[in-house]
Structures are given as C-alpha cells and as structure tokens.
Write a structure and sequence with these properties.
About 30% of the residues lie in helices and about 35% in strands. It has helices at about 15-25, 30, 65-70, 75-85; strands spanning about 1-10, 35-45, 55-65, 90-100. The chain is globular, with a radius of gyration of 14 Å. InterPro entries: Dabb, Dimeric_a/b-barrel, HS1/DABB1-like.
Length: about 100
Amino acid sequence: MFEHLVIFKFNSSMTKEHEQLLLGKLLAFKQTIPGIIDMSAGLNVTEETDNIHGYSLGLRVTFESQEALRQYGPHPAHQDFVKALDGLLDNVVVVDYPIANA
C-alpha cells in the first residue's frame, strides 16, 4: 500500500465557499478513482497556530499499490480538481511513501 499526503496553502483570492467546493471534490475521489483503500480530507482546525504556516486544506489517501497511486494523477476526477486550483495556490506539499507492514 502507498500513502499520499497533500497540504494546500492558498493565496488571498481563495474564498471559504471555493475552499468548501474543493473539499467536496476531494471527498468524491473515493467513489470515482479506482485503487483507493481509504482517504480523508479536511480544513485545518489545528490549535497549534504557530505551525499552520498558511496551510488550510489537507488530504490523505491510502492506495492499494504504487501503481494505483500512479494512475491517480491522470484520472479525470483528479485532473478536474487540479484545474480548479488554477490561480489559487501559494504552495502545496506532497509526501508519498510505502506503508510498512507492521
């Protein structure tokens, strides 16, 4: 299995309404993109305000394999989400790693 973590930092043109729209698009991935075992996404509500650094939306997706993760990128639902980010991002952080068997 592979874990895919993403955190988004939006610029000043982002509205709360558009942020909610993006969150909805992310949450729909599990029903539309094959190979997803589990996922969660949400708006940052941490009380560790010194560590926010402007990042307001997080995504975690567990894929059944690295190949499923590779197929996720070009999937139409993912590409639709990427297009919806156009002109809104200040930064994005992505971490992908294999999940070690415990």
